[in-house]
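@channel sequence for tomorrow's demo:
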Amino acid sequence: MAFLKFNKAELVNLHYSTKREIIIANKVGGYCNTTIVSCNTRRYHGLLAVTLDRFGGDKFLLLSSLDESLIVNGKQFNLGIHCYGDVYEPRGHKYIVDFSADPVPQITYKVGEIVFRKSIVLVKDIDEVLIKFELLQAPAKAVLQLKPFLAFRNIHALTHQNNEARTAHGEAKNGLSFRMYEPFPDLFLQFNKKTVKFVDTPCWYNNITYIDEYRRGFDCMEDQFVPGYFETSMKPGDSLIFSASKLECDPVGFKKVFDAEVKDRGTVESMHEQLLRCADFLICNHNNKKRITAGYSWMYTGLLRETLYALPGLTLFGKKDPAEFEEILDNLIADEEERLFHRTTQVEAPLYLASVLQYYIEFGADPKKVWRKYGKVVKRIITSYEPGIRKEVAMHPNGLLWAQMDGVALSWMNAYLNGRPVTERAGYQVETNAFWYNSICFALEMEALCKSKDAEFIREWSGIKSLIERNFRSMFWNSQYGCLADFVDDNGQNMDIRPNQLYALWVKYSPLEESLAPSILRVIDNELVTSRGLRTLSPRDNKYKGVYEGSQVDRDLAYHQGCTRPFLLEQYVDVCFRIKGPSFWKKAQWLAEGLYADLNKHGVGAFSELYDGDPPHEAHGAISSALSTAALLTVDYLLEKNKEV
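structure tokens (generated this afternoon):
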């Protein structure tokens, strides 16, 4: 597809091309991530990163890069590219004439009469990356040299030349194995042909510089070990397949596996198909336990809030797979008992489970079956907010939840600066109390539907429901501003205009009168809505930071103080359809198209975590976000649902 291709002029411009990344993830927790010119600009970049249970389930980078060189008629052309301080060497990008990401990442090089192509595949169910090299044209036979750069480190860390590294190699069929440090698994580098020879020239390449880390003010230099290079001759029309894996594989099957993986991915015929492909990447099945990865390449798998928010969009509205929905939810409940029932720094997250189950019922699940399976969990979550159970949050006599822990951000707005939260939001949080009321109403509705005999629960929580109804509006509504306070503390209402108030309109059981919704929505429209999601703070606020750039301090100040979040479009579009009806359809389509328009930026073919609050709304954060992907799938569902016949 055109939006997943780049031409020579774009590729040779490093300012342009190094800001565009490819990401491939498999189903078992591994990934391949680099730029479209194969220049690693982040510590997270590499050809093979894997999840290692022996290190607590963190991700570790084994193979950083593989530099290609072609020797034709005695002349050597180096196709790799690395940054060393201010210098790029070699500068292989100057030979790239084409990049395509569909169906798999593919880079074409042209050197005079030589045309050479490489295609990258990450095997779906095992930690193996396959790279196919093809000599399409050449005036004579060529010698291909391949130089592996080994990392063997946590993806969040950097490595340096040291005496502990094991530089020796072991034997493998049509290749070699490496294990730089004892606790790690072996890394097998193999080829589908026996003609490949290894030339042993061990060397450390020092001061490899990751320019994106430098730009963000992080440590940005590391040393990587290159054991030597592989070498083979190729004539025009020849191909070679390289494999890097934790397991020794049978080289005879490399071509068959490569072709099968390409066929399985297929070609993308529409924007929605690309969205579904991204959704599939984000569902991990490590150790036969399905979880959602919050984002690539540095976000974690199985996080409570991110899983709950992304689950309906990815599994129901995207893949239309209720069995997968329940499997992931069941795993999450089993994994997150502490946060669901005892303590969490994102106090609203457990309460979002009610909304997730409401989505499931809307999708077509039997309400009684849903409540029989998950009712005890919902009721246990609700009762955990009673006084004396959670230290970070508790219900007050007015029925509302008060969240406070000095020096701790107790919501999804959890950036820190010098150890202190940028947006602490201690007190009555508007979204937390909206979810609180919705959870109680949902539980009471389901108890009545199922003719529950738990009379004590119904009596107690019916009374608390009434308390919230009497107190929510007076606590949060501000007639002067025409909207809701973001939170209320001992100093009164905090009137920072933020998107959290949107949830009070969105939940199925809103604690507000319908008559207030147009005014609140008007403020959100005027202050927060952009073509790339909702801002986290109004640009009229003196704390507003419209660009997510600069040092760590600058970025932390902008993270929840102006940056837009695409995931908030899910609730915004839903609320607008309810209030404005079909007349909102074209606006909703425009909002979705804004995110599709950026598929050739940041993460190529993926949906970014956040954008600048200021135009032109450049993408930042994780290049492939579960929240953004899931929200757009839900928006697509809402567009279809509300389309006029």
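heads up for whoever presents: The two ends are 30 Å apart (CA to CA).
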